[in-house]
From TrEMBL:
InterPro entries: Calcineurin-like_PHP, Metallo-depent_PP-like, MPP_PAP, PAPs-like, PAPs_C, PAPs_N, Purple_acid_Pase-like_N. Residues 1-77 form the Purple acid phosphatase N-terminal domain. Keywords: Glycoprotein, Hydrolase, Signal. The keyword Cell division does not apply. This is Purple acid phosphatase. Residues 86-280 form the Calcineurin-like phosphoesterase domain. It comes from Lolium multiflorum.
């Protein structure tokens, strides 16, 4: 587990941890410290990260960081096998709506959070990255948060800040260089959970994706390396949706879809989750814009609570492939129950937590003989 934290003053990048709350921290790890400046005016605090472990699965660890040794945090490691529950929330931001979404997420247990881009909406104003960190800390310190980038993370300024993703890459370092299929960029990576029962592919909508590019080559290799006798479900995350019947951001995911859809289809990816459009939409199984029983289920879950508000206008008539669409804030949950069945649910902020606004059982494509000739 990578622990990331920021101190204003100089402090060593040390995490102390153990399985007993209180003063017992038998293990410790020293990591590294970085920082960055932005537009000459902003200087980040010391950004520390340390990878701790090996850790036991399904275990609560208590830990403290060098920032404030009197503060104890805890997290629970993911389970070693199915069932496994993901929370998926996109376009989170840091508004009152965001707070409601986070409250709903915290109200029910889960193993890992996946975020398909657009985190802080700092939008060049770097102190908002700090306030976002403080806002999500209670949740992000307690479960693994696995994120990929959105357009709001680019923060490139011609001549002055030519390097894109400066703050994002400094603050949200993901394990792109670890595991069985390392990539060379923090903007795309993959990992397994539940001893390989689920493979998660985090794609970069704002990294080059055409055939011949590093991301495309990496994705080909990553998908080719999956052993579907062991891996029941494969899910992918992108930011700009490949299928979208909302009037907002129409066509923005098409280039990436043209470049990569056949790869995901060939690997029998079960579901693709996107953000960017500030609404909820679920499609049936689709390939090349038509219903296809061996294609992925597509879901837009960009309704986390950003400051731009909801995207309320839809294309009429509703495409046949679009099963459910609604402009409300909320979050989703993917409960992978066993090797053949996963339950997807959408939780609308307007409702009490037990109310589910949309749900569907997703059966793994590898369990469908028609898709595995
Ligand atoms: Fe976006």
């Amino acid at each position: 587990m990578r622990v990331t934290w920021i101190t204003e003053d100089d402090a060593p990048p040390i995490v102390e941890y153990g399985t007993i709350s209180g003063q017992q921290y038998p293990f410790s790890e020293t990591g590294t410290t970085t920082s960055y400046s932005y537009l000459a005016l902003y200087h980040s605090g010391n950004i520390h990260d340390a990878v701790i472990g090996p850790l036991r699965p399904s275990t609560t660890y208590y830990y403290r960081c060098s920032a404030d040794r009197s503060r104890e945090f805890s997290f629970r490691t993911p389970p070693p096998s199915l069932p496994f529950e993901f929370v998926i929330a996109g376009d989170l931001g840091q508004t009152g709506w965001t707070k409601t979404t986070l409250q709903h997420i915290a109200a029910a247990d889960y193993d890992m959070l996946l975020l398909p881009g657009d985190l802080s909406y700092a939008d060049f104003f770097q102190p908002r990255w700090d306030s976002y960190g403080r806002l999500v800390e209670p949740l992000a310190s307690a479960r693994p948060w696995m994120v990929t980038q959105g357009n709001h993370e680019i923060e490139k300024v011609p001549l002055l800040e030519p390097r894109a993703f400066k703050a994002y890459n400094a603050r949200w370092r993901m394990p792109f260089d670890a595991g069985a299929s390392p990539s060379r960029s923090n903007l795309y990576y993959s990992f397994d959970v539940a001893d390989g029962a689920v493979h998660v592919v985090m794609l970069g909508s704002y990294a080059d994706y055409e055939p011949g590019t590093a991301q495309h080559e990496w994705l080909q290799g990553d998908l080719a390396g999956i052993d579907r006798r062991k891996t029941s479900f494969v899910v992918a995350l992108v930011h700009a949706p490949w299928y979208n019947s909302n009037k907002a951001h129409q066509g923005e995911g098409d280039g990436m879809r043209d470049a990569m859809e056949a790869l995901l289809y060939g690997a029998r990816v079960d579901a693709v989750f996107a953000g960017h459009v500030h609404a909820y939409e679920r499609f049936t199984r689709v390939y090349k814009n038509r219903e296809d029983l061996c294609g992925p289920v597509y879901v837009t879950i960009g309704d986390g609570g950003n400051r731009e508000g909801l995207a309320e206008k839809y294309v009429d008539p509703q495409p046949k492939t679009s099963v459910f669409r609604e402009a409300s804030f909320g979050h989703g949950r993917l409960q992978v129950v066993n090797a053949t069945h996963a339950l997807w649910t959408w939780h609308r902020n307007d409702d009490d937590e037990p109310v589910v606004a949309d749900q569907v059982w997703i059966t793994s494509l590898v369990s469908n003989p028609a898709c595995n000739k």
